[in-house]
User: Fold this.
Amino acid sequence: MVKEVTSFSNPLVKHARSLREKKQRRAEGLFLAEGLRILTEAREAGMLPERIFFSDGSHRLVQALIEAVEAAGGEAVETSEDIIHKISGKENPQAVIGVFRQFDTGLAQLDRNAAPLWIAAQALRDPGNLGTILRTGDAVGAGGLILIDDCVDPFSVEAVRASMGALFTQKIALARWEEFVAWLRGGPGQLVGTSLNTEQDYQAPRYAAPTFLLVGNESQGLPAAYEAECDLLVKIPMLGKADSLNAAVATAVMAYEVLNQRRRKG
Assistant:
């Protein structure tokens, strides 16, 4: 049965708003996702929020979400646009917000053979880049994204928003470098790093499946020891004055090169 909430001080509203804070998300293992498109993508991927807030239930997709959430034992809350704005913090918030349970982010839950391409990012700081990389992974059919060392929270409101639903279609794992290397070397996998410290053009090698694309921090790139562990280091040519691309853009260029090699073989 749909609940109606009209007060800003309602405990459900306060709780949802608190999930904008990383500390609270970690403590409860929950996160927020906004927007009808993103929540519909999540439902189609088999993931439902534990609670859904909405200000207009007339849309058929909103109704489908409400029915699915309630059928799964979750809670649907009808409220005002002002309260949705309060929870979201955006000037023009979406009309639907979901409270989701965070999913398993251990390396052990990954099946490296499930996809020919995986993306790994080390010390990524920008939630927009993280979300864009997830979208790229979804577009090229990657298995998922492995976040290495201290990266931005993939469950932050900004990262979830930037992923446009790809958070729910891509596997996500978190690991320290040593843990990742031990896992990677325990099975098949070619580790390909993007770097300025090589003359090898990114289109020159033939990439082997599964390929693990490794991109570094936005401002510092990959540490030297991490580059030394890579099976291949490649460079994207820069013909202008800039010495490198944005991390998310570089990831997309590399991912499509790997995909296109596979397509030509196919």
